[in-house]
Amino acid sequence: MQARVSRKIHERIEGLPKAVRDIARKGQLRMYQRYRHQLVAGKAKVVVTTAIACKMVGFIWAIDRAVTATLA
Predict the structure, then answer these.
(1) Which of 20, 57, 62, 63 is in the most buried spot, having the most CB atoms within 10 Å?
(2) Do residues 20 and 59 lie in contact, with contact meaning Cβ atoms separated by under 8 Å?
């Protein structure tokens, strides 16, 4: 599926800081592109999913750093 924000997710992220939303959107687009690229390259779905999960942890870390910086 294409990287997009559904109505339900849009309502959920409405109250979040702009920095968090920007990082999340960037991550969503990047992971979608990476997923498609690796599938087209012939990688197994399990391998691709594991690689994307690893990338997702990096974006979660970046969001944590952004939120922690604003609270400090």
Answers:
(1) 63
(2) no
- Domain boundary assignment for the chain: 18-71
Q: What is d(CA 21, CA 42) in angstroms, rounded to the nearest whole number?
A: 32
Query: What own/partner pairs with CB < 8 Å and gap ≥ 24 does 56-63 have?
Result: 56/27, 56/31, 59/23, 59/24, 59/26, 59/27, 59/30, 59/31, 62/23, 62/27, 63/20, 63/23, 63/24
How many C-beta neighbours within 10 Å does residue 63 have? 19
**pLDDT at residue number 71:** 78
Structure tokens at 24: 């999340």
Contact 3, 28 (CB under 8 A): yes
